[in-house]
Sequence to fold (50 residues):
Amino acid sequence: MNTATHTAAARATTAKNITLLGKLRALALHALNLHLQTCAVIAEAHRRPQ
Fold:
């Protein structure tokens, strides 16, 4: 494998990793948002008088 091919392969791998990390970050943010919404619903239920 020559240097140019190796460099291109390294760039492709890096791009895949960045894309994967971006997807994981988006998934984590979505999970956090759902968790916070659930906490807000539970807090509201406890705050209201029965």
